[in-house]
Amino acid sequence: MARTCRTYAEFWPYYLGEHARPATRGIHYVGTIVSAVVLVWALATQHWWWLMAVPFLGYGPAWIGHFFIEKNRPATFTYPFWSLISDYKMCFLAMTGRLGNELMKHQIRA
């Protein structure tokens, strides 16, 4: 990315563009959902050592998607907090059927 995102409003369209391929988004959803389930389970059962697995379960599939499907550099490396928020936002929009409109709004095509 040539320019720096200074606000989340600037970052979000960039993030969507870095996730243009449906397969990349799909593997992100798997990582996001599995890591969230394991986080809740670890907290509920107080099996604290499972907390160490949460980042690997979330970022592992996502990074595989970037390196082998999308063939780009994960936004997490430059914008870790915004990227984490956007993973959940993208997953939520997909689960509620609103991601397609967001992709069209920002002219993101696979």
**Fraction of residues in helix:** 55-70%
The quaternary organization reads as single chain
- Number of helical regions: 5
Mean pLDDT figure? 95
The span between the termini is: 18 Å
Based on CA atoms alone, the radius of gyration comes out at 14 Å
For the report, how would you describe the main beta sheet? none
Number of strands: 0
Counting helices, strands and paired strands, the structural category is: mainly alpha
Name the overall outline: globular
Portion in beta strands = under 5%
Order of helices and strands: HHHHH
Low-confidence stretches: none
Number of domains: 1
Structure notes:
The chain has helices spanning 8-17, 22-45, 53-70, 80-95, 99-105. The model has no long low-confidence stretch (mean pLDDT 95). The chain is mainly α and 110 residues long. Helix 2 packs antiparallel against helix 3. Helix content is 68%, strand content 0%. It has one domain. The two termini are 18 Å apart.
Distinctive features:
single chain; 110 residues; mainly alpha; 68% helix; 0% strand
